[in-house]
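Hello K.,

You asked for the raw outputs rather than the summary table, so here they are, unedited. I folded two proteins back to back in the same session to keep the settings identical. This is the first:
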Amino acid sequence: DIFGQETLITALSHEPDFVVEFLEHLTEKIIVPWCELLVQKFPNIWLELSDASGSPLFISPHLFQKIAAGPVLRLIKEFPWGNRVFVANYRGDMTPKISRVEGRRGAGRRNRRAQQTDPETSSTQSSTNALNELIDFKLSLCTEFIIKLDADQSPLSIYIEQAIRREKPLYLGIGATRIDRNSIADREAAKSELEDLATNSAKAIKTVSESLADKGQYRSNLSWPGDVYFEDVNAES
């Protein structure tokens, strides 16, 4: 519902250079002066930016990394208060499936497949690598913790592994539609599902937190964004 947003989304396909220039202009003339004033008044402030529309889910992982995230990286890298800037709501982690080139090869070459990498394994490895790269990139925009939102469809176990390996706290979001009165047909069933989801989320966070504690890295007591939290609450919740 943001005025002008649809124009930008369309321009991503037809006028990408315009979008880049516009975001750079917006950053330089509006966001940077605003951040500097806030930091002057509140030296220990955290500057959480919100850019769900620039998420991989909505504009693709490629355009997310190439265009949408550019201004955020600039703020983080070029300014003394950059380590206080983060975006935690870039949603969507499903990367494009790798095409199975091997499966399309001619029949005359089938007898050599035993000597080649199994296409299924290769595709899985490529998808895993792509997910790792995407999580790495998201970490460059939100350096203090790893977050899994409702729109991030990879298994929770993967995020537990990623958080432990990178030694980062894990935060988990519960989608607003799970408590939206217009989206719930069976309230009791929704309640049961929500209880299971919250329980599993708490267990996952405990697993990561205990792993960090074993390494002497205790979980931050900062309330951002909340260990297990509802991503949006409104009049229809």
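The second followed immediately with the same parameters:
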Amino acid sequence: MSEIKSAMLLMIFFVAILFPGILQFGIDSLNQNAFTKNTKEFTELVQEEAGLTSKSKEVKARLETKGYEVKLTDQQGTTVTGTVPYGSTINLAYRYTFKSVFKERVLKSTNTALVTKRDEKTSTGGGKPITPGEDSGNTGRSETKTIILTSDELKSANQTQTFTVDDLGKVKRISSDTGNAEILRINGNQVTVKMTGGATSRQIQTGGEYVEGESKYVTNQTSQVYKDKAGFEGVLNKYVASGYLMQGREKFVTAQYGRFYRDAEGYEGDLAAYLYSGELKPGGSKYVTGQTSSNYSDSQGYQGTLTSYLYSGSYTPAQVVTKSDSKVVNSWMLTTSGKHCSMYKSFSQYKNEILNESHSTISNFVGKQVESFYYTGWESPPKETEERCDVSFRLHYSYKEQSPAKDTRVYRYQGTVNKPSVDTRVYRYQGVVKQPDTDMREWRYQGTVRKTGMDTRTFDKYYQYNLELTYEVKE
């Protein structure tokens, strides 16, 4: 079991540590070799093509698609976009970024190409056209030699000077320690060189003076920008001269009566409402019936005004019935004398008799009011005698019999009653309140200020070139 465990640990160690390291080493080595090869080949191509031609531009574009950054500059630092003169130097800066195991890696390199071959060019100093590498006419080949030619020290950076070189054969290249050097012509052992853009070799002061600037340290200033009468000035840094800063704090408060809180310790803030006590009992409505009063109110809080309705019983209205009757009375009248018989009674007498007679019978009715009495006519007797005549008339009368109304109705009340909402809620306020920072700091400014020096000097500047000439020694 221990052997298996050891093997597993060894495998984990290999996978986690050794394998990534080996893989990274392999990737880095491959990219490093490719980088060295590509930069060397492109530098040689630029040297052969005397700069950027269609061919070298095509190769440069292919390198850039692979992740290379290639920058070409001349001796003055100007970007090279085409070909350059004979004897010029091209600086090539390379940068290549590639993905390694754990992170991106960058390779950098700087190469120099000395242009020794270019198209034919006419010399600016006159004479016949020259071609780089042309010698004084001898075709012999001998050893290669490199010498240093020093120009005269002149006040101008642009110089043209002719040098005499013993045994001068084919010129291979020329370069300068400063600026640019260009061969204008070669005549036997003499070579004429144009030198431009060089640095100053020395300078001689011709007048004026130089007063060196000064600096000093100031503190406890009230302004960040410092300037004094002596000419010192500068921008100072802020610092705490005295006092302190006490950071604000927070706390939670509750059961407050107002939404905005502020206390003697400086805490303040807006609070949120919450239910402190009580409740909301919602209202309602219900329908009641069989009530004995139109104004309703109960122990549950329901109340309202009800409408009446017939609960029980009935109503029989009063009835008036007209009764009629008739009475036949006889009155005897002497026919011979035309006088009434002794038993004669007038209509009024009969009427009163009827009323009196009817008193006991009509009194059983409510009305007791005789409406009318009227004659219905005389009736002729069947025969007439002198002694008497049977004369009769029929007396009709009528009266109203009235029965009273009968009302056994019982009314009750019904309707919808409402219970209003009961709100006993009490609200309070709570929340986080803050105490602001207490800043008792007093700020001042300090730092180094400078007084600018004064330079009124004038100089005569001199320029001198050290040329490195490589050529084949003429036999």
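The CA atoms of residues 138 and 169 lie 7 Å apart.

Happy to rerun anything if the numbers look odd on your end.

Regards,
P.
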